[in-house]
Description:
The chain has 415 residues and is mainly α. Helix content is 65%, strand content 1%. It contains 17 helices and two strands. It has helices spanning 12-32, 36-45, 65-73, 87-115, 126-130, 132-151, 185-199, 208-243, 252-277, 282-309, 312-315, 321-324, 330-336, 341-349, 360-369, 372-393, 398-413, and strands at residues 119-120, 123-124. It has a two-stranded antiparallel ribbon with strand order 1-2. Helix 1 packs across helix 4 (87-115), helix 1 (12-32) crosses helix 17 (398-413) and helix 14 runs antiparallel to helix 15. The two termini are 22 Å apart. Residues 1-7, 80-85, 162-182 and 192-207 have low confidence and may be disordered.
Amino acid sequence: MTTHDLSDVPAAPSLLAYAHERTEPVLREAVGALQPELRRVCGYHFGWTRPDGSPTYGVTPGPYPHAALALHAAGAGEPERDGRAPEDSTAAALPGAAAVELVHNWAALHDDVMDGEALRRGRSAVWAVYGTGWAVLAGDALLGAATRCLLLSGEPVEAEGPEAGPEGAGPDGPRAGPDGTEPTAAQDLSAAAQGLAATGAPHGAATGEGEEAARAERAAVLRMLTRTTSRLISGRSAELALRRRAPEGISVEEYAAVAAARTSSLLECALAGGALLGGADERVVETLTRAGHHLGIAVQAARDIEDLWSGTGLSGRPVMSGLREGGPSLPLIAALRAGNPAARTLAQSLGGGPACPPPPDELADLIENAGGRAAAHEISAWQLSEAYAQLDKAALPPASHAALRALFRHTVTRA
């Protein structure tokens, strides 16, 4: 399947399954190159193995939503590929797709430790199985692996350490092989273009110069990814700072800024990086970056709603776990700022501070009665509509546009 096969666009689960099929071998190769113990820990985190390192059977693998966005965004550049097969754009984007998934899982491993969250995708979190030290090390290893995906793409992967086992061994055995002044995605694209000019190669040339062009593009995406990890760290820091404040003092704008750093940043990188690796021009890269910004805020708002009213059934986490952790929750923030009698009742119920919260069901009802749930739904829907609007402005090939629209919708609504 290529992006051109999507004239009758499959449902989002099919698009995710395609991304999983294409990306998982790259992820397994990256993990297989790690030191043996880290390989086992990371294999467990991805759902490939049991705690003892033996393969899992019948376990539903986690989706790779960032990889799916990157691979289908790669189709944005297909008309400019000088007649090359559409599949080439997907293949070119694979290192970036794997890298964003590795960064996402780095952040997830560290988040679980910091939040004391014992579940991840319905299984015990890595720190709960192996201890916090191994969880932190595994996250760091995945971050390093993300860099190697982009730097060493197309080159042999060497395992780490003298005991790392056969080259390319996977976790289940051998496997073949911060800050507004920083450069923008468009500037990264310009740098890549300068790299092409230096070689004298047209984009996508199937020659040694073409490989130099691909290296320049991957280097540009690596700069994007480095900037993204910085934003993720800054966003986590800002979120922790908000946890020390009373929720009634947090504005919706402050919430959106944290959501943009914590959630939008990686979605922006996936879309812009995939498009860049697929040969899209500067305008498309910039527009998809803006789409990722709005998509991330829509996603975070939807997850806050899910945390309060859906719980384990959808997220694999206990009901209200995010609120118990003290993180900023949009329904609560919106409810407290509603200015109606129910909002005042809610504020009074929180007067005892975090040590004496109301019972979960009562708190959820108070937030809903004050209008917090409806307000969060409205904000999420508006941000999703803005993401769609930016996607429309990108003027992508029809198949790529339709696939990304389906993925946007599924990422927010799970529909």
